[in-house]
Automatic annotation (TrEMBL):
PANTHER family: TRANSMEMBRANE PROTEIN 260. The chain crosses the membrane at residues 38-55, 104-130, 151-174, 180-200, 212-237, 257-290, 302-327, 339-360, 372-393, 578-595, 602-620, 632-653, 665-683. This is Uncharacterized protein DUF2723. The keyword Transmembrane helix applies. Pfam families: TMEM260-like. It comes from Neolewinella xylanilytica. Keywords: Membrane, Transmembrane, Transmembrane helix.
Length: 1108
């Protein structure tokens, strides 16, 4: 019989391996086969229904809005792109667009795609668990027919594994939103399933087995167009390959192929030539030394796992980065010789195609199966990877969202390398307190007209040698991270580091305490034990937020303190989920059973569990603190544990059968029902905080931002959650497409500034004084202060200039040479810059002159004294070039440091601050945050927006879980409503002020936003105006919530309160004190007495009124 499609003879192949008993002796047909398939489809049906019922019906936070609009219009999303996700998502988006005129259905269908992907992934996982469980029950040598009880037990295990995987909190979170992680879960599960199909295929069907092997590799290639999680399955595949094909010459054949491929991939890396030569020689020596020797099976097993790890690097370097690297080699020379752009792709395809042809020809001539499989695997990955062309094609179309503009290979390569996010040290690098002593500049090409030229460089810092170490875990010296590292070291952040710290021990402690303990184990227990609440956890010693729990009170109290007096809103938090350790216990039971039955297969699955969990943790080298919880990247590890959860069913069945002599279907059904308690508990506990079917907040809050600004406005935004939802609202739902959203997080790079020069939907181009060639690549990344007339004088001693004159100076090329040989393209000679208001042009720009406010002649700007960065230059250019043409706003969620000192010249209009030609001094002791309290307030517009335009995400009418990521937008709306109320009261318009207050308590009810300090601040205008009767129900609820929390804080150990609840306790005491004090003079004796009774234990906080 032929071993594979090209006709390899059995005798040519058999001498390279030792025959292993086949699976043909297992009657894997009939009732077992049917029940196997039926179980998978039951899993699919249940999970698909539950997940589809809980998907979000519009856009969501973070990257979801970007991916939905990317799928709908095939736009270019952030690096490294997800072209296959976008193509498949385009099909779902088109279906939603065809079925309804409601644009929100587009998002619902893309989100539904994630639910379907998750359901299919769970199905594949169920089938995988069934196959591995069957092997554990019968083994490869079993001759006896599989009993009915075994059939049901195995099927029950598959059912448990599939349901548990779909309903873990981390998987479910991604399953209801249109992000890449659900589809990545699908491809990873399908890859695992295909690899297990290869492994369990009988020997006489080798040709079919190898098709499954190649298909699993093809799945990995396809997943590169979604997310790279599936590539981590390669060690699992190589271990299965070893177990199935092992023989005394395994290392000779497979090891050499992997060694040669790895050596070839090194040629495409950025390491030095000497490093490449030494590495290749080392690989050749190791391959030669090990290849001719027979090693123990445990050594071969480890070698197979290492080969899989090397294959990850090979695929990444030879294909994912290698193809564009080779393309760039050919492209630059050929295009600069006069040939058209993209011509370098042709010789790249010929080079890879030629290499594969030679490999196939060699395999055919020498009957070499290993080379044939390797070549076929790389060929399928290359075919799948060709989807990356979508990124370049759509970038050339200049879509409205065109992240990094990768329209040629020189911009595609850093896009795929995610260079804008920087690099983290893995094996060797600096400690967080290392000083940078120099930088290495690696010139980068860019497309200029019809040829390539050096336009940019990659900066690689060099650090003092004494501050670098092997395996650095605390290596990030930016963004306040050193202080956080000190806290994890148990040191005072305000004090200097002791001599010799941090050291290797500190780094290892950080690895185990933070990276493994906090960023892996905590997430693992969220999924298999329970979760305390929906708050993001930052520190392991903070018992108030983000911890894992069990639901078993005495166990939880050992870690988190007394829970008897837990406040009602804490206890009823939808994100508080308890599984009583059942999933963990069943998973551990299945793990132990699997290891005792099939040790080698257990170790193979364990490798998958570790690599997709701890492997990711070690590779990403996460610093504290992340912008959000990162559990969603670890789902590969979690679903592997779910497979062991499923194996608990046959494990218990075997125990029952042996101990109680209970056989047959009844015992198997009972065991399945017992273990099914765990996934049933998971789905019932997780439903209320994962059901987003009624959520519209991301779209509604984006609508509120966009409706806050005038027609054709420019609005500067800052973070993901006040940019991506706005883009989604415009691109998908057509909301305020006349507004141009400018992201301050992206504006420091040339490609984003260039995109502003294009029309976006109904928004005209943004006029800019600096031309494209002035800002290309590295040009004007930083412009330094230099006054040739007074070189030693400070920047503030320079002349007074207008912003227009200042931009002229920035635009002038001076090309000054430095002592280091660098050329500085320009400088600026003064910090005294202002916008000079032209009274003659104000009539055409009425937004600059709010009614009743005097117009100023000059608007001073705060210009940094040492140097200004490209983002500041771009902001100033936009303001200067469009000041009289379009209204210009900053979103209230922007950092005040980006305002250029314009706070006194802004007017608060809804969720945006408009630049005006009037001045209102911002109080230095303002009760509002700096961005909310700036300048003046358009109270009439704000009143209309709050009462008639703003939408509330259904949080005002549906009791649900409100994700803490909505916090900045919610807090901003609350502060804006409060400031507008106070402004109206100051103007004598009490009724409209209180109407806004009433709307606040309707929009943010206690059921979703338990009344505490925020609600208390909103009561101040009612007390101030003597209208507390109007909100008496709010006052009573606030008093009850406050007493509930203070009772809880008093029940805790003082040390726990000091570490975790001190701030909240002070707030609660303040609320109690102020409520009791202010109600004494309110005139509402009944309300005062009610609150007095509720807060009776805390009346000592209030001083008794003085007599007389």
């Amino acid at each position: 019989m032929q071993r594979f499609a090209n006709g390899l003879a059995p005798d040519k192949y058999d001498k390279f391996r030792t025959f292993t008993p086949s699976l043909t002796s297992i009657p894997y047909m009939g009732k077992l086969h049917r029940l196997h398939k039926l179980t998978g489809w039951i899993v699919f049906a249940i999970t698909a229904v539950v997940l589809l019922l809980s998907v979000e019906r519009t856009g969501s936070l973070w990257d979801v809005g970007e991916f939905i609009l990317g799928a709908y219009k095939l736009e270019v999303v952030h690096p490294p792109g997800a072209p296959l996700f976008l193509l498949i998502g385009r099909l779902f988006a088109s279906a939603g667009n065809l079925l309804s005129d409601d644009p929100a259905l587009i998002a619902a269908f893309v989100n539904g795609m994630s639910a379907i992907c998750t359901a299919f992934g769970a199905t594949f996982l169920a089938w995988s668990t069934i196959r591995l469980s069957l092997l554990s029950l019968t083994g490869r040598d079993a001759r006896a027919e599989v009993g009915g009880g075994q059939v049901i037990a195995v099927a029950g295990g598959g059912l448990v594994a599939g349901l548990a995987a779909a309903f873990t909190t981390s998987v479910w979170f991604s399953a209801v939103e249109g992000e890449v992680y659900a589809m990545s879960f699908f491809f990873t599960c399908m890859t695992v399933w295909a690899a297990i199909r290869y492994y369990t295929t009988p020997r006489e069907l080798d040709y079919l087995a190898y098709r499954w092997l190649i298909f699993s590799i093809f799945c990995i290639g396809l997943s590169s167009g979604v997310h790279l999680l599936s590539i981590l399955v390669l060690p699992f595949i190589t271990l299965l390959f070893y177990l199935r094909e092992r023989g005394q010459l395994f290392l000779t054949r497979v090891g050499k192929i992997v060694g040669y491929l790895f050596a070839a991939s090194l040629l495409l890396t950025s390491i030095s030539l000497t490093g490449k030569i030494l590495a290749i020689c080392a690989i050749a020596g190791a391959t030669y030394f090990l290849g001719g020797r027979k090693l123990p099976q445990w050594a071969e097993f480890i070698a197979a796992g290492i080969s899989g790890v090397l294959m990850i690097g090979i695929i990444q370097t030879l294909v994912i980065i290698g193809v564009p690297t080779v393309w760039q080699w050919f492209e630059i020379g050929m295009v600069n010789s006069g040939l058209p752009v993209h011509i370098g792709l042709l010789p790249t395809l010929l080079a890879y195609g030629g290499g594969l042809y030679l490999a196939f020809r060699y395999a055919h001539k020498h009957q070499d199966q290993g080379v044939q499989l390797a070549a076929m695997g790389i060929a399928t990955i290359l075919i799948a990877y060709s989807v990356i062309a979508v990124v370049v094609i759509r970038a050339e179309a200049k879509t409205p969202v065109n992240m990094n503009n990768p329209d040629n290979v020189t911009s595609l390569l850093p896009y795929l390398n995610r260079e804008q996010y920087g690099e983290r040290s893995l094996l060797y690098g600096p400690q967080f307190d290392a000083d940078m002593i120099a930088t290495d500049l690696d010139d980068r090409y860019g497309l200029v007209g019809d040829e390539y030229a050096y336009t940019n460089y990659k900066i690689t810092p060099r650090y003092e040698p004494g501050k670098q170490m092997f395996f650095p875990r605390m290596a990030d010296g930016s963004q306040g991270r050193p202080d956080l590292y000190k806290r994890w070291m148990g040191l005072d952040p305000s004090q200097p580091l002791p001599y010799g710290r941090p050291n290797a021990i500190d780094n290892l402690k950080f690895l185990f305490n933070y990276q493994i303990g906090w960023m892996y184990w905590r997430y693992f227990m969220w999924n298999f034990s329970g979760r305390q609440n929906g708050e993001q956890g930052y520190f392991s010693w903070d018992d108030s937020r983000g911890n894992w729990i069990t639901g078993i009170q005495f166990l939880d109290e050992m870690r988190l303190g007394n829970l008897d007096e837990l406040p009602e809103d804490f206890r009823n938090d939808p994100a508080r989920n308890t599984y009583f350790l059942l999933p963990f216990i069943f998973g551990l039971l299945g793990l132990l059973w699997h290891s005792s039955k099939r040790g080698e297969e257990f170790l193979t699955l364990l490798a998958l569990f570790v690599i997709t969990g701890l492997g990711i943790i070690i590779y990403t080298n996460q610093p504290p603190n992340e912008p959000r919880e990162r559990d969603y990247v670890l789902v590969g590890s979690f679903f592997t544990f779910c497979m062991w959860m499923g194996m608990a069913v046959p494990a218990i069945y075997e125990f029952v059968k042996a101990r109680f002599r209970a056989r047959g279907a009844g015992a198997a059904i009972g065991c399945s029902a017992l273990v099914l308690v765990a996934p049933i508990l998971m789905v019932t506990q997780n439903w209320d905080d994962h059901d987003r079917s009624e959520h519209t907040a991301a779209r509604d809050y984006a609508h509120n931002f966009l409706e806050s600004v005038d027609e054709n406005a420019i609005i500067f935004t800052y973070g993901d959650n006040d940019t991506y939802p706005l883009w989604y609202a415009q691109e998908v739902e057509g909301i305020r497409t006349d507004v141009r959203v400018v992201n301050l997080s992206l504006i420091a790079v040339d490609w984003y500034i260039d995109l502003l020069r294009y029309q976006m939907n109904d928004s005209p181009v943004i006029d800019l004084q600096l031309s494209e060639d002035k800002l290309r690549g590295r040009l004007r990344n930083q412009v330094q202060y230099y006054n040739p007339q007074q070189p030693e004088a400070p920047c503030t001693s320079g002349p007074q200039v207008s912003l227009d004159e200042f931009m002229d100076e920035i635009a002038t090329d001076k090309n000054l040479a430095t002592q280091g040989g660098r050329i500085i393209e320009t400088t600026y000679s003064t910090c005294n810059v202002s916008i000079r208001v032209d009274p003659g042009r104000l009539a055409q720009a009425p937004w600059l002159t709010p009614a009743g406010q005097p117009v100023v002649q000059n608007i001073p700007l705060q210009v940094p004294g040492g140097a200004i960065q490209k983002d500041v230059i771009a902001i100033m250019d936009i303001i200067n070039s469009n000041f009289y043409k379009r209204p210009i706003y900053f979103a209230v969620t922007c950092q005040p440091s980006k305002f250029l000192g314009l706070q006194d010249y802004m007017q608060l209009e809804g969720l945006a601050l408009q630049i005006t030609a009037t001045r209102t001094a911002t109080p230095t002791n303002s009760m509002y945050p700096p961005n909310i309290g700036a300048g003046s307030v358009d109270v009439d517009k704000n009143y209309d927006l709050i009462m008639n335009e703003w939408q509330w995400g259904n949080f005002d009418v549906v009791e649900t879980h409100v994700n803490t990521s909505y916090g900045p937008a919610i807090q901003s709306m609350q502060q804006i409503m409060l400031r507008t109320m106070n402004e109206l009261i100051d103007r004598g318009d009490t009724e409209r002020a209180l109407e806004i207050g009433d709307r606040y308590f309707q929009a943010f009810p206690n059921m979703n936003f338990p009344f505490f300090f925020e609600a208390f601040t909103m009561l101040a205008p009612y007390f101030q105006t003597g209208n507390v009767d109007r909100v008496s129900d709010v006052v009573i609820q606030l008093a009850e919530n406050t007493a509930d929390r203070l009772d809880y804080f008093q029940s805790l150990d003082p040390q726990i309160v000091a570490q975790s609840y001190a701030f909240e306790e002070r707030r609660g005491q303040y609320i109690a004190q102020q409520l009791l004090t202010q109600l004494q003079g309110s005139g509402n004796e009944q309300l005062r007495q009610q609150v007095q009774d509720i807060l009776a234990d805390y009346s000592f906080l209030v001083e008794p009124p003085s007599p007389g």
